[in-house]
Design goal:
single chain; four-stranded antiparallel sheet; 1 helix; 139 residues; alpha+beta; Lipoxygenase-1
Length: 139
C-alpha cells in the first residue's frame, strides 16, 4: 500500500472544504441577484371587429365585456343584431364576456359570428335561460 491513509483523508477533507465554499456562497440567502426587468410587450392597437348576434328568442338585454370594459350593450333587441366593436386583437385571439338576459320560460340560444381583422370568421354559440353570463374565446 502506498501513502498514508491519514494524509489521504486530510487531502480529501481539504478538497471538500474548497468545493464547499463556492457552494455556500451560491446558496447563501443574502446572495440573491436582483431580478431583471423584462421588456414590456408593445401594446396591441385596437382594431374594429364586426360581430353578428343571432337569437332564437330576442333578449331583454345584452352586454359584451373585453378585459372588464364594456364594448357593447343593448336592450330590447331584434332577433338579429350587427355590432362593430374596437378592441385589441392579438395573434392568440381574444376572450369576450357575454351577459344576456332572456325572458323567463324556455331556454334560448345566441349565435355569435365574429369577423376577425385578419379576415377569418369565427362562430360560437351560447345557450341559457334567464340571466346568463359566459366567456367565449375566439382564436
Amino acid at each position: 500500500m502506498r501513502g498514508s491513509p491519514l494524509i489521504r483523508a486530510l487531502l480529501a477533507f481539504v478538497i471538500i472544504l474548497l468545493a464547499g465554499f463556492p457552494l455556500w456562497r451560491l446558496t447563501e440567502p443574502g446572495s440573491v441577484a436582483a431580478p431583471v426587468d423584462a421588456p414590456e410587450a408593445p401594446a396591441e392597437q385596437a382594431r374594429p371587429i364586426h360581430l353578428e348576434l343571432t337569437f332564437t328568442r330576442p333578449p331583454t338585454a345584452v352586454q359584451i365585456l373585453h378585459l372588464g370594459k364594456e364594448v357593447f350593450s343593448g336592450s330590447a333587441l331584434a332577433a338579429s343584431v350587427e355590432a362593430k366593436i374596437e378592441v385589441p386583437y392579438p395573434e392568440q385571439g381574444i376572450e369576450l364576456v357575454f351577459s344576456v338576459n332572456w325572458p323567463e320560460g324556455e331556454p334560448a340560444a345566441m349565435r355569435v359570428r365574429l369577423h376577425a381583422p385578419s379576415g377569418d370568421e369565427h362562430e360560437r354559440t351560447l345557450w341559457g335561460e334567464g340571466e346568463t353570463t359566459e366567456v367565449l374565446s375566439f382564436p
